[in-house]
Amino acid sequence: MSDDSIKLISLPKIVDLRGNLSFLEDNNQIPFKIARSYWIYDVPGGEERGGHAYTNSAEFVIPLIGSLQVELYQGDKKQTYTLNTPNKGLYLPKLTWRKVCNFLSGSICLIISDTYYNDCEYIRDFNTYINRWKKEYDDIN
Hints:
Blueprint: E1 7-10, E2 13-14, E3 21-22, E4 36-40, E5 49-54, E6 59-65, E7 68-74, E8 77-83, E9 88-92, E10 97-101, E11 108-113, E12 122-123, H1 126-138
Antiparallel strand pairs: 1-9, 2-3, 4-11, 5-10, 5-12, 6-9, 6-11, 7-8, 7-10
């Protein structure tokens, strides 16, 4: 299953007096098979993470603890999402420029990816990203 649309996805939430539980599974709650996961934490005030896009990787961003914002571009179209619920995440398809910012102190952000780490997959320059986006998507629109 593949999708080129950014979207918020609610995860199952099992409510229990002893504490709530949420989960996700390959190709079920998220539209890809999980290859890698990593998390961001101890972000100093005012710092940002990301500032890049991936050529072929899709990701799913979940705020496990606290709150953060994700600023996204698909081409020159900008969207900003505030994530602050651990049972709701944000799906980012390939070629989505992202910046994760405005972390509340103590926040922990989990990222699930459909590919293994590969430094060659990163687009770290915004102008290079825009040119790649136009080449990939403007020809089909």
